[in-house]
Design brief:
The protein has 4 helices and 5 strands, in the order H-E-E-E-H-E-H-E-H. By secondary structure, the chain is α/β, with parallel strands linked by helices. The chain has a domain of 86 residues: Nucleotidyltransferase, domain 5 (2-Layer Sandwich), CATH 3.30.420.270. Strands 3-2-1-4-5 form a 5-stranded mixed beta sheet, with helices on one face. A hairpin with a 2-residue loop joins strand 2 and strand 3. Helix 2 crosses helix 3. The longest helix is centred in the first third of the chain and has 15 residues. It is elongated and about 100 Å long. The model has no long low-confidence stretch (mean pLDDT 77).
């Protein structure tokens, strides 16, 4: 008696097609997973003494079009949480200015005790980079921003 003629037969045959009925569910679950686990990076504040002001104006531009430039008392310049040489400011501002569709707003956050020569040098570098809209950040603006959060 041979095994192939034993009378047993398969009830279903294996399909050569990939089932696509649950593909939309899987894609949706992956989308939800990535949305939940994404961490948006917050910009680090530098330890500066904020200048005082009687009045301020809110920046009405999208966050992606705002570039924060920090000037410390010692003349160190920080952009995007990285210290950069003063001479490199225009080289970093120019591409960001063009990429933003000429809508880039620079928030200059300088220490109140920083010598004016550093502030002037940063302003000249920003101007050389092509950006024209510079906002001087103050303590009043910082407090208003924290209250909105």
């Amino acid at each position: 008696m041979s095994i192939s003629n034993s009378g047993f037969q398969r009830k279903s045959k294996a399909s050569d097609q990939i089932p696509s009925s649950s593909m939309a569910d899987i894609a949706f679950l992956l989308l939800i997973f990535f949305m939940i686990t994404t961490v948006f990076r917050e910009e680090q504040e530098r330890p500066i003494e904020w200048p005082e002001a009687q009045a301020t104006q809110q920046i009405d531009e999208k966050r992606q079009n705002v570039l924060y430039v920090w000037v410390e008392r010692t003349g160190q310049v920080w952009m995007n949480d990285q210290q950069i040489p003063m001479e490199m400011v225009s080289n970093l501002v120019a591409p960001a200015w063009i990429e933003s569709g000429r809508r880039l707003v620079i928030s200059l956050r300088a220490d109140a005790r920083a010598p004016y020569r550093y502030i002037d040098a940063v302003q000249n570098e920003i101007r050389d980079g092509g950006a024209v809209y510079v906002v001087f950040a103050t303590d009043l603006e910082r407090r208003m921003t924290r209250e909105r959060r």
